[in-house]
């Protein structure tokens, strides 16, 4: 049967996605085949369910290899997932499954609605530090002048000296790149911000500045899904903690309860 426009019928709306969620991951699976070793298959994600609402900061915890980075990369579509759904509610109110969007649609969403900050910035070649940060603002709807001002303010806040603003980001140190990355990720805050150990390379003063910036995202309604190596950062920032173990959700709850549970597989770095 065809509709009058001869387009495919819209997919059935998922019944189990809460009306208020920005991100709803359902039965998500991802495996890796280790061709270079012996063809062994690693189940990195084994049926993960997870919701994140606007203004909520959900921190993923669990030991190394639990699947935290893989989950963030599947949501950002750096990795194609192997099953399940990744429902994202756009600013226009449409529910889309990130797992099945085209590459072009993903590129659009990344610019406008998703931010992703990892330990490493892959700086675009031949672009200045200021340009990288202000372009992120423009992509999320700011006027060019306003984006430059906001980029300057964000760079000051994460203590990137003005003499570095015209330089190519490729020449920066690891910690400086990480701070440029967080400035770009938080300027004109996106609907969903994915953070994978965003303060791992920073000294204490810069770490504090970046954590302050992340803490203020709550007021803007940004939904945050994060991984932090240190539990103090989780305790301070997260509204909820989801513990992964071997690619499954093994516990979820408030930071104060989860982080003090001696039976959970957490990596302790206090
Ligand atoms: N690109 C990859 N190729 C092969 N295996 C991978 C890849 N990325 C992750 N894995 C494997 O998936 C599992 C989960 O890894 P990861 O998501 O990085 O864990 P975490 O971030 O919690 O430390 C691990 O067994 C890891 O070795
Ligand atoms: Mg990781």
Question: What does this 3D model show about the protein?
Answer:
Residues 23-270 form the ABC transporter domain. It comes from Streptomyces johnsoniae. GO terms for molecular function: ATP binding. The relative contact order is 0.17. The chain has a domain at 21-113 and 223-262: Rossmann fold, CATH 3.40.50.300. The N and C termini lie far apart (60 Å). The longest helix is centred in the middle third of the chain and has 14 residues, at 144-157. The model has no long low-confidence stretch (mean pLDDT 90). The protein has 270 residues and is α/β, with parallel strands linked by helices. The strands form two sheets. Strands 6-7-8-3-9-10 form a six-stranded mixed β-sheet, sandwiched between helices. Strands 2-1-4-5 form a four-stranded antiparallel β-sheet, with helices on one face. The radius of gyration is 19 Å and the shape is globular. Strand 9 and strand 10 form a beta hairpin. The chain is built from nine helices and ten strands. Magnesium ion binds at residues 68-69, 227.
Q: Please describe the biggest sheet, giving its number of strands, its sense, and whether it closes into a barrel.
A: 6 strands, mixed
- The CATH architecture of one domain would be 3-Layer(aba) Sandwich
- In DSSP terms, counting alpha (H) and pi (I) runs of 4 or more, how many helices? 9
Structural class: alpha/beta
CATH homologous superfamily label of one domain: P-loop containing nucleotide triphosphate hydrolases
């Amino acid at each position: 049967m065809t509709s009058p426009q001869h387009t495919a019928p819209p997919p059935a709306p998922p019944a189990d996605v809460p009306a208020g969620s920005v991100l709803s991951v359902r039965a998500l699976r991802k495996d890796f085949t280790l061709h270079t070793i012996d063809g062994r298959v690693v189940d990195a994600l084994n049926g993960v369910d997870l919701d994140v609402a606007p203004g909520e900061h959900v921190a993923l915890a669990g030991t190394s290899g639990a699947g935290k980075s893989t989950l963030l990369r599947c949501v950002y579509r750096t990795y194609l997932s192997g099953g399940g759904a990744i429902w994202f509610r756009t600013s226009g109110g449409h529910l889309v499954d990130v797992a099945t969007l085209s590459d072009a649609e993903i590129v659009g969403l990344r610019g406008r609605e998703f931010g992703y900050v990892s330990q490493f910035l892959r700086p675009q070649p031949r672009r200045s530090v200021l340009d990288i940060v202000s372009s992120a603002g423009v992509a999320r709807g700011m006027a060019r002048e306003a984006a430059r001002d906001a980029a300057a303010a964000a760079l000051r806040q994460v203590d990137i000296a003005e003499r570095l603003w015209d330089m190519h980001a490729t020449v920066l140190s690891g910690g400086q790149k990480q701070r440029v990355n967080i400035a770009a990720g938080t300027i004109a805050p996106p609907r969903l911000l994915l953070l994978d150990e965003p303060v791992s390379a920073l000294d204490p003063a810069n770490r504090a500045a970046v954590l302050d910036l992340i803490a203020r995202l709550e007021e803007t309604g940004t939904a945050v899904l994060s991984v932090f190596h240190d539990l103090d950062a989780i305790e301070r920032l997260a509204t909820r903690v989801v513990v992964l173990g071997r690619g499954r959700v093994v516990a979820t709850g408030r930071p104060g309860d989860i982080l003090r549970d001696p039976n959970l597989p957490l990596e302790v770095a206090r």
